[in-house]
Structure formats: structure tokens, C-alpha cells
Amino acid sequence: MNTNAITAKKPITTKPPITAASVRKPLIRKPWFKKTLLTLVFWIAGLLLWHGLSLVYGPEILPGPILTAEGGYELLAEGTLLQYIGISSYRVLLGWTLGSLIAIPVGLVIGKVGAIRAFAEPFLNFIRFIPPIAFITLFLVWFGIGETSKVVLILYATFFIVVLNTLTGVLAVEEDKIRSARSMGASEWQIVLHVIIPATVPYMFTGIRLAMGTSFMAIIGAEMIASNEGVGYLIWNSRLFFRTDWIFVGLICLGLMGFITDRAVALLGRKLLARYGVVGAVGGRR
After folding, report:
1. According to DSSP H, which parts of 113-128 are helical?
2. What pLDDT was estimated at residue 283?
3. Which candidate, 55, 189, 201, 282, has a CA 20 to 30 Å from the CA of 208?
4. Does domain 88-243 correspond to CATH entry 1.10.3720.10?
5. How far apart are alpha carbons 136 and 103 in whole angstroms?
């Protein structure tokens, strides 16, 4: 053996191990940090603009963020704000849930049965252009001024949006999938259960989320006209005392209620319905 060749080899050098610290990117280069920073800058700029406009037009016309916060604290101290938020949320969630539960099977039946669809589709396309607020007076006559008329109004606002989205989903199912299921001996009920419903779930979910926004619009109109409780009543009644700060408090509460509810529904959809292709939040993770 040539010992000189062995001793002539270069010494073995070891590189330092790669750790998380050695590949860590600067914080400012991380996407989530950039998004958070931009959001923070946007909200600060919006508050500054709001405050500047309030100085121009005066607090009686446009109360600034500080006066609005003081008005909100005043309503919180009285205990009315949380009560009104709870009442409006209860009405919206009840009517929205009932409307969705009724609309989904109705949409599936209309989409699956051609004879029913031929009769129902023109009616749906006609009545969907009538806003829910237009029915407030009729519902008050039919169901009284209590909770029933308000819940039914929200149910109406939810029903047609979810039905139309479900119907669209059923009609969008590829005919080849249905024929393949039939060729393998599947019954019509099995086709509905294992082919049509899974393919229609994203459309149903979209309709449910869209109906949530319409439900909030409907309940505010109902509470303004025929109610002595709720966020809509707070906004409408504040005009009598010329408390524009309370009006802004009600508007902010509505936005927060809708935002929180929508995010909660989106989170549930992403967790429970991801296998059906439901993404969840708009602009969320893909």
C-alpha cells in the first residue's frame, strides 16, 4: 500500500450545521409581516382621514373617532349596546339558519327535477329582484310586530339566495359524472347523495355566505321600522336626539358583527368542507 498517497490527501473539513437561525429571513421580508404592516398603515390612515374630516365638518355632522368611542363607552355603561347587539345577532342567526336549512333541499329538488325547474325557475328569477325590505309592511300585517315577522323577513332574504346558488351548482354538475354513476348501477338517490351534493357544496356555501350580508340588511330595515330594540333601532332612534356619534357606533357594530360572523362561517367551511373544494375566507389560504 502506498502510504505516501494516503498522507498526501487533503484533510477533511466539516461545515457548520445549517440551523434555523442561519436561514432565517429578516422579519420585514416575511409575507405575513408585510400584510400586517400594510393593514395597520391602512387603518391608521383611515382614522387620521376620519379625524381630519370631522374637524372640517364639525362633530354634529361627522363625529371623530374619539367622540364615537366616547359615545360607544356611554352606551356600554348603560348596558344597552350589548343588549341591542345580542338581539340583532339572535334574529339574524335564527332567520339565516332556518332559511338556509329550507333552501338547500328545495334548490336540490328544483335542480334535479326538470318539471319542477320549468315551473319554479321563472318564479325565482322574478321574485329575487324584489328586495326583502319591500315586504316589511306585509310581514308586519301577516305576522305581527313581534319577533316572528323579523325572523320570517330574514328567512325570506336568505331563502332565495341559497336556492339560486344551490340550483346553479346542481346544473353545473357534469353530465358525464352522472352517466358514469348510472352505468355502474347507482340509483337516482345514490347519484344525488354521492355525485350531485358533493359537487354542489361549494355553491351552497357561497350562497350561505352571501345570504348572511343580505340578512343583516333586512334586519336593520325591520328594526328601524317596527322595533324598540336592536342595532337598527339604535341607529334610527339616535336621530331624535341628534346623536350622530351613536349612529356611528351602530354602524361600526354592524360591520364588526358581519365581519366576525362571516369569518366564523368561513373558518367552519374551511375546516369541515375542505374536501369538497371549499376555500373559506375570501383572500384566505389556498
Report:
1. 114-127
2. 44
3. 189
4. yes
5. 20
